[in-house]
């Protein structure tokens, strides 16, 4: 397949993600601006962090004046799944030149991983032309949406901003119920939620987010290992 044809296929695959990313990132831009975050910082976060859950969480934690170390730790925990994504796709990109691998890492989001891994599982070869066309177009949509939202943020009233703030829990609920819903994943989510809620009631601040993430993930891992041992026996 010629390069132009590969790029056409990549853009066709990216259209649903482009359409979804723009309004979501625009919501982030509006919330960030309404929270007092300068537009430049909002845009730079989309350029550098490029993670919906982490960016929405960042705005929320900055508004609550949570200590920087807790913010950094929480965001790293939220994005830890990308290490597994990279390990999964690693064999498919091992022949790529190093600059392409770094660009691929930057553009690896949940949605892109889902589409790309499905093609790889079908036995298709993953080329830099396809992947980078796909990833860069989605990346551009996210940045443009943030720019648009940052421009509109100053015109948004606090009441509307409070309504839009539901985008963060809605995003995580979508990730929870849209993903694998086995016993391990549901126990992990419930355990993390309970720990974070109790920590909040005890006024422990951002420690609850970190503790909930760690304890919830550990619970899910232990349950998964136990279930696998039962299957082996």
UniProtKB/TrEMBL annotation:
A Pfam family it matches = AzlC
Kindly give the InterPro entries that the UniProt entry links to this protein: Brnchd-chn_aa_trnsp_permease (IPR011606)
Q: Which UniProt keywords apply?
A: Cell membrane, Membrane, Transmembrane, Transmembrane helix, Transport
Q: Name one GO cellular component term.
A: plasma membrane
Q: What is this protein called?
A: 4-azaleucine resistance transporter AzlC
User: What subcellular compartments does it reside in?
Assistant: Cell membrane
Provide the GO biological process annotations.
Answer: L-valine transmembrane transport
Asked whether the keyword Iron-sulfur is assigned, the reply is no
Specify the protein's topology with respect to the membrane: Multi-pass membrane protein
Q: Which parts pass through the membrane?
A: 21-44, 56-78, 129-148, 160-177, 208-227
Family of this protein? Belongs to the AzlC family.
Q: Does the keyword Transmembrane helix apply?
A: yes
């Amino acid at each position: 397949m010629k390069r132009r044809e590969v790029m056409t296929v990549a853009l066709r695959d990216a259209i649903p993600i482009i359409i979804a990313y723009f309004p979501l990132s625009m919501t982030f831009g509006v919330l960030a601006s309404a929270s007092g975050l300068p537009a430049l910082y909002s845009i730079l976060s989309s350029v550098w962090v490029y993670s919906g859950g982490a960016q929405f969480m960042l705005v929320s934690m900055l508004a609550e004046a949570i200590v920087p170390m807790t913010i950094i730790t929480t965001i790293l925990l939220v994005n830890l799944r990308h290490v597994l994504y990279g390990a999964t796709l690693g064999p498919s990109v091992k022949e790529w030149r190093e600059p392409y691998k770094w660009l691929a890492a930057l553009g690896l989001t949940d949605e892109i991983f889902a589409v790309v891994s499905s093609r790889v599982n079908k036995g298709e070869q993953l080329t830099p032309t396809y992947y980078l066309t796909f990833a860069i177009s989605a990346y551009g949509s996210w940045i443009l949406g943030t720019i648009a939202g940052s421009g509109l943020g100053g015109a948004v009233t606090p009441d509307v901003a409070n309504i839009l703030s539901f985008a963060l829990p809605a995003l995580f609920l979508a990730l929870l119920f849209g993903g694998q819903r086995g016993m391990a994943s549901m126990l992990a989510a419930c355990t993390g939620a309970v720990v974070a809620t109790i920590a909040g009631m005890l006024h422990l601040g951002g420690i609850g987010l970190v503790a909930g993430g760690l304890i919830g993930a550990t619970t899910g891992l232990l349950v998964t290992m136990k279930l696998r041992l039962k299957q082996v026996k």
